[in-house]
Structures are given as C-alpha cells and as structure tokens.
C-alpha cells in the first residue's frame, strides 16, 4: 500500500512507462478528492436502481461491454502492449477470455441460483421468504499482471455488475493510459445499454484509492495483488466492517509422484513453460516443485531454462523486486547449499542495479533446494514475483508430502500422477485439498477456466476469505447478502419470489429446491 | 472480552450463582492449558474422520443428541432455572426448540445443497469439479441469554457438526454447571452414536477461551454476545486469518405506519411483551419503536409496563450494566427532554447500587424520545441489555424513516402496517432491508424460526459477516469452504460427485442444476 517512491516521478499523475524500453510515454492525472466524492455519490444513487433491474437486464449490459471490448481489440492490445510488454498473443488471448467471462457472469446472473430465493410456512399463517440483495457500491483494486482479467474490466467488475452492484475501479499504476481507455469503453457501453448513471467509474491515484476504501458509500472491496497491499486494505476496511476480498500472492506447489516422474523431460518442459508464462507474473505460478530424486528434474529444467528468452517485467518496481528477491534467494541458497541456475545468479546476490539496462527485462531462474530447508518462515519460500521457481528432489514421497502440508496455504496446487492407478495420487490430492483452493491433476496451475466449478481462492493468506472465489460462478456471491422478510405479501417480494416465477430461476419452496419448468 | 473482575471471586473456577437470590451454589474448575491443548489435538484428529462421513451419518448423530436432550428435559430445565432465573416455561420451550433445530440441521446436511457439488467439462478432455469441504475444528463462544439455543448446544454447535466439523465450546460463565452437564450429555450421545473421539468438547474459563482463539487447530469461531466481546474476538483471530462469525447486540427498530396505529393498545401490549421477554435479554429485542404522534403509544406502553413484574437478569454483571445503562439513558433523557417511565427512573441516574438487593431483579422501563435527538452516536441509542426500550412519536412518517435508516444497522426490524393495501408499507420495508437482515411484518422480532429461509444476521456491526446467518439452513455455510479439482477421476471425488449420486443431492452438472430423481 505504500505509494511508489520513485525519484523524479511527477506529482499528481500516474506516468505511463514502456517496460520494453523503460521510456515514459505520457501520464494520466490523479482523480481529485471532490471528483472521487462525486463519483461515490453517483454510485450510491445508482445502487437501488441497479438492484431493481432483472438479472436478464444486467446480462444484456454485460454482453454490450463484451461487444465493445471485442470491437476495439486491436487498439486495446496495442495500448496494453505498450504499458505491459506482455506481447500481442498473450494480450489478445486475455482480452478474448475477458470478453467471454463478461458474458459468462451475465449468464450466471440470469440463471438465478445466486439469488438464493426461497419461501416457506413457519407455523400458523406466518411465512418466511429469503433472497440475496446486492450489497451496494463495490470498489475494485485491480492487478498489475492482468490488464484485462482483473482490474478496470474482468472478473471482479463483471461479477459485481452481474450481482447488481455499481462499481468504482481504482486504476493500477502499471497501465494508466490503458485503464482510462478501457473505462471509457465500459462506461459508454453501459450507458448505451441503458445502465443508470453512476453504474461504473474509474479513479486514478493512490490517494483516490484510499478515499474509496474509507468511503461510507463503498460496501465491499475486491483486490488482486500482493500480500502487503491486500492485508493493508483488509485492516483498513475492517475498522468499519467492510469486507475485502483480497486475492494475494503465494508459492503454489507442484507434486510429481514416483510414477509420473518417468516423463521428467515432459514435466520439466511444462514446468518451465508454466512458471515463466507472462514472465512469471501469475498468482497461479507454480513456485515449488517436488519430484523424486534420481529423475533428473533439476537438470532437465536447467536445460530448458537456457532456451527461455529474457522478458520484460511489468514495472521498474517489479523488476527491482525480482532482482532483490533473487538476490535473497541466492543468499539463502548459499547458506543452505542450494544450487542455482544461470551464470549471473551469485552476482545477483551482491550487486543489484537500481536502474535496468534494457527496459525491465530479466532472466528466468530455478533453484534446487533440500527438503530439510523448507519450513514455514524459510527465506526460500518468500514469494518472488517473476520467473523463478524452486525444485525439491525428495528421497521419500511421504516425508515430502508431510513437509509440503506444513507450508503456507496457497491458491492452487498441481499434482502429476502416473494415471488413475497411481497409488500415491489419492492421498496427495486429499491432503493438498486442506491447503489450497484448487488442485489441478496432470495440468499446470496457470490455466484458470471461467466456469461454474472454478475455485480461485485458497485458505488465508492466499486470500482474505477462503470461502470466496474471484473467478467462476461463485464470484457473484461476494457481492450479495441474504435478507429475510416474514409475512411478506406480494407487494414486498422481489420478482425472484413471485408465485409465477417470472425470472424462471431455481427456488426453494417449503424446503424443497425446485427448478423452473421447461 | 475483559474477564469479570468481581471482587471475592475464587480464582481458577467459574462460580455458579442463582440470579433469583444472588446466592452462589458451587463452581466449576477452569480447564487447564494442557487439557485445552489435548482437547485441540483430539479435535484436529477427529476432523478428517468427521469430514469423511456422509451427511446422513451426521444427521443420525444429531438426532441422537436431540433425543438425549429431550430425555433429560426435567433435569436440564431445573439446572438452567437455578443459573439463569429464566423460568421453567421459557426454558422448556427453548430446550424443545433446541432439540428440534438440532434435528433440522441434520436434515439440512442430508439434503445436501450445502455441499455445492458440481462438475463440468472445461474444454478438451479437461474437467473441473467443485464441492464444499468442512473447514476443520470450530470454536463456539455461547451466549449468556440462551442457555440451550446458543452455546454448549444449539444453532452453532449443531450446524457445525452437521457441516462436518469438530466443535470445541467455551462455557459461558453465566451457567457453568448447566454447561458441564449439557456437554456430558452431548459428548455421550455423540459417542454412543459412533462419532469419532474428539468430535465435541467443552472448555471452561476465560483463558481457555483465549487459548482456543489463538490455537492453530481452530479454523473458525462462532460467537454470540456483546459488540465489545465480538469485536475483540474478530480482531484477535484476524491476525491469523481465522473467520469469526460474531452475532452482536444492536438496537432493533419497529416502525408503526399511520394505518397500523389505529390499534395502539394492541401494539403497545405486543411491544411490551416483546421487549420484556426473557427480561429483555434477547439480541432480537425491539429497542426503538416509531409510531405516529397522537396515537398515544407511549401512554399505552406506560400503562402496560406497570403490569410487568420485576424479573431477575442473568448475572450480577448484567444487572449492574442494566442499571448503569438506564442511568445513562436517564441522564441523556434529562438533557434532551425525553420522558421516562417509572418512579425510580431519575433516582437510577444518580445512585446505582453495586450489590443488588433481591437477586438480580430489575424493573422494565420505556423512554419517550424526540426524533431530532436520534442520530448516530447518540447516547440514547447505546444498546442497553435488559427490559428497556425507546419510543419515538413522529409527526411525519417520511422524516422518521429518513432518520431511522441513518442509524446503526441491526439484526432485525419489525414493521406494523394496516394490511396489504397500506400505502406506506412497501417503501418502509424496502428501505429497512438495506439496514437489517430480517424484516418481520406485523410480527414482533423476538420470534426466530429455525427454517430454510431464516436470516439471523445483519450488516456490521449487528454481525461481523453480513453474508452469514447463525440460525436457519444457511448456518452450515459458515463452516465449509469450496475446493475444486481439475481432471479428477472417481478416486479423487467425494461421494457427492460420484456419477450415481449415492447421497441423492442436488448437483450442478455441466452448468445445469439437477435434482436427485425420486
């Protein structure tokens, strides 16, 4: 939560840098306090009007947003490339996924299960009816690493709108010009689709973000980013009881069983591809791989890494953080006898350039660590945002699993098995489920599907609320709360509970779950 | 959360007092730290074993607990009467409701919707499956005012066991002997029904409670009580990311429309009955009634109050708190020109006896306050636990409603209307729903049904988590979290997701909610 203290940064603006060169191309002014206050007033005014719309109406709004994003693909990918250096293919893919997920959240709203609607007799003439209402204006703090997936648009914004809440987004300083352009497109699409004034707005600047967290109008906060930033928001908002759904960085483990290790070359290739994807800037990056000793995983990874080109990180701050993190890991490695790939590894430990030489580009790295050095609090396990991962070659699978489940919980784990008959896989999956939100079997953790059964959120401190997900149908549940009305007649009930079920949604009537008739 | 600092209290025990006389009858020793640690170890050991049982198995355990409670009704009501002074009728009713709700939570578990089970294809050969797992050992901090409803037994314990979690209860010092006896019965019933060792245990003493909150084994906390106690637990547990579901005291409003006020005598009688029920020691007590001026509500309440006998409060501390609260209200009333019922009202403002003269008995009171003196932070609105309530006679319904929705949120509100055609009722209910968890129409808030659609939990600070309920089917949701497994074969899936649906539960298959076939 500390503002970037870069010397020479102009006050009152978010400057736009190209990570491929380190050059600045313009800037975006911060939103003034009185402008933020006006945005909040409009959001509060929009809240009951949005809450009064049908889910199908909001489904149409979200479809309009998706259409606008697709119609401006070339422009948006170009702009995102200039501010993130992530490459056109990755950015095109992310934008397409974002548009599809925006449509998906509309469909989840229209399906109506998220409304939790039900009614029953409770003795005598009394009845009790329950349904979920939108909580009100939601503040979204997006991530640096997914300019389309988690921020000005993406999972948090679309699921909050789908659930019937106005949204105010805080622009991430890693891509201010893209943020402003995206917000224009979203606001315009919503406006033309008929959404109320105040349904959506963007603010820019650190102080504007704090103003959101402290504002009485804001009833929930969604955040994607570092543990430091997430926990600062959680604590600040806790003072007035506002929930913060923070999805934070963790070291995600991979467990390779004895049977699976027969294909060590394939696993090494997949692992390198996954932990260097997007220059290692994924919250689902596999950060620590356990493989049986003797399978040569580390050597195979070392060979693969030599073929991975340098890639720019998103910001100068992230590049400095990566270099400092690598240096810390190298020092810890020296102390523990761990082995580090790459010629510059030990140099990195002693001499970190403050200013990058070729934009924010860095080399990927891997460390071979000993099982006995992996314990909660070990410096080896501090998350290092960027293309670095640890490998632990175990002699004994049971002992490795015991050590693994004592480490910090995480968002996701991958397990590689020899197939359905692998005797180790059942216990490994069962025990890892106690530590994570998702286990990917024979798949890398970096692919996150937007679907009904996705769980993107693990036990604290992977997220601030382990019962929440920021991807998938459950994402809407973060932005509603249940209310009950006793003895309501039809004038007091929402359409969700009208006797003729006009929204055609699943409902629980007198304790029995019922589906809409076809 | 401050320990009771009663002078003369024996260290190392919870003394048992009779509120009707103030006399001590024995005591119960505190649980030693090493005993608490052993209880936690056993709970952790039981967690995976309980998690591995079917919901129907746990339904049978809960039925056995309910049977044991019913079989010991006379003994339990006697013991509870000696420690709470709540009267045999009330206690018999509460015990019967507790037994019924214990059975209900078993039925909710067996119905299986709480499992949130679903599976779908996500492209290629990949699949994603999601279901809810129990979080692990739950600590329950019960309430003083519901010896059977919220504590050693009751909503939190039964819903946590139903969801598949071991439970460790902290005994409330208001009824230590009852707590020990209840815990014996529950533990014995669970044991005979086949629940694993460690499924359920009781600890006694303030320090034992802190040990639970700080214990790595405890994964969730349920609390019912004061705002001070609840928020202290929330903050303490937040340091390690453990959710605390705290249901805290608030001033619950009642709104009487112009049409409804025609029956002012009936409303006055109902109001007095509701706010003096259980000597006013209900979290759902109606604390502030708005009625149209000219209907004579305050005078009608004053007349009714004269017929309500003195009743003992639960503990010496609560009785002192009530007298101090009344004194504060009387001082605020003097400053604002409010009118107070009862001859001793102004005396109470100046002279509060530290030791009660006839047990912990107190008189009920009502205050007539002006609308303009009701604002957030007003001393008039500080919750006073006991048989006191405020009445505000409004000249203008719209203005009164505007003032009301600016006050602190609460658990529940009641609205009295002139019937379905009452022009005011729709707006009153709609606006109050933004402030509360439940609105009771033409019913008093103190009746809380245990059913599918109950919502017992309002916006902060009424509860720490406004999306949670501590009564009704949703109570189980507090004690589970979702997990997803990608590409699971049948060996990795719970019975909830086996293709033949052995538990016969609703599931979402490829995005479509499906019901078990009859």
From TrEMBL, chains A, B:
Entry keyword annotation includes Transmembrane: no
Residue ranges annotated for the Aldehyde dehydrogenase domain, each copy included: 16-458
PANTHER family hit by this protein: ALDEHYDE DEHYDROGENASE-RELATED, SUCCINATE-SEMIALDEHYDE DEHYDROGENASE, MITOCHONDRIAL
Pfam families in alphabetical order: Aldedh
Alphabetized SUPFAM superfamilies for the sequence: ALDH-like
Spans annotated as Disordered: 1-31
Organism the protein comes from: Cryobacterium mannosilyticum
GO molecular function: oxidoreductase activity, acting on the aldehyde or oxo group of donors, NAD or NADP as acceptor
Name this polypeptide is given: Aldehyde dehydrogenase family protein
Keywords: Oxidoreductase
């Amino acid at each position: 939560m500390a503002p970037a203290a870069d010397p020479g940064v102009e006050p009152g603006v978010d400057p736009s840098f190209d990570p491929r060169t380190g050059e600045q191309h313009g800037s975006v002014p911060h939103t003034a306090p009185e402008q933020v206050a006006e945005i909040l007033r409009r959001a509060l005014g929009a809240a009951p009007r949005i809450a009064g719309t049908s889910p199908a109406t909001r489904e149409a709004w979200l479809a309009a947003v998706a259409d606008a994003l697709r119609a401006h693909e070339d422009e948006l990918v170009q702009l995102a490339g200039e501010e993130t250096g992530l490459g056109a293919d990755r950015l095109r893919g992310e934008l397409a996924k974002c548009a599809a997920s925006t449509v998906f959240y509309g469909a989840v709203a229209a399906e109506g299960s998220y409304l939790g609607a039900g009614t029953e007799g409770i003795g005598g003439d009394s009845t009790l009816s329950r349904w979920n209402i939108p909580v009100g204006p939601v503040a979204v703090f997006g991530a640096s690493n997914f300019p389309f997936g988690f921020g000005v648009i993406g999972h948090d914004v679309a699921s909050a709108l789908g659930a019937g809440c106005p949204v105010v987004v805080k622009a991430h300083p890693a891509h201010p010009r893209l943020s402003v352009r995206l917000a224009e497109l979203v606001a315009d699409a919503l406006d033309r689709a008929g959404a109320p004034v105040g349904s959506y707005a963007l603010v820019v600047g650190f102080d504007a973000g704090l103003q959101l967290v402290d504002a009485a109008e804001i009833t929930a906060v969604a955040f994607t980013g570092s543990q430091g930033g997430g926990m600062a928001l959680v604590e600040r908002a806790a003072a007035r009881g506002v929930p913060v759904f923070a999805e934070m960085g963790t070291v995600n483990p991979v467990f390779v069983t004895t049977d699976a290790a027969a294909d060590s070359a394939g696993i090494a290739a997949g692992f390198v591809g996954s932990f260097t994807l997007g220059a290692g800037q994924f919250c689902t990056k596999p950060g620590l791989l356990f493989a049986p000793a003797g399978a040569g995983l580390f050597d195979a990874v070392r060979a693969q890494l030599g073929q991975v080109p340098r890639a720019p990180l998103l910001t100068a701050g992230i590049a400095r953080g990566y270099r400092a993190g690598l240096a810390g890991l190298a020092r810890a490695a020296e102390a523990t006898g761990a082995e580090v790939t790459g010629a510059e590894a030990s140099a990195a430990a002693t001499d970190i350039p403050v200013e990058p030489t070729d934009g924010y580009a860095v080399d990927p790295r891997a460390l071979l660590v000993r099982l006995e050095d992996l314990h909660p609090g070990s410096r080896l396990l501090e998350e290092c945002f960027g293309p670095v991962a640890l490998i632990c070659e175990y002699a004994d699978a049971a002992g490795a699993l015991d050590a693994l489940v004592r480490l910090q919980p995480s968002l996701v784990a991958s397990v590689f098995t020899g197939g359905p008959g692998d005797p180790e896989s059942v216990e490994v999956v069962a025990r890892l489920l106690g530590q994570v939100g998702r286990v990917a079997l024979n798949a890398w953790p970096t692919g996150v599907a937007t679907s009904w059964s996705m769980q993107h959120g693990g036990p604290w401190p992977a997220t601030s609320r382990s019962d929440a997900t920021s991807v998938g149908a459950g994402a809407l549940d973060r932005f509603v709360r249940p209310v009950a009305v006793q003895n309501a007649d039809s004038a007091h009930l929402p359409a969700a509970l009208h006797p003729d079920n006009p929204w055609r949604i699943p409902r629980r009537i007198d304790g029995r779950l019922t589906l809409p008739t076809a």
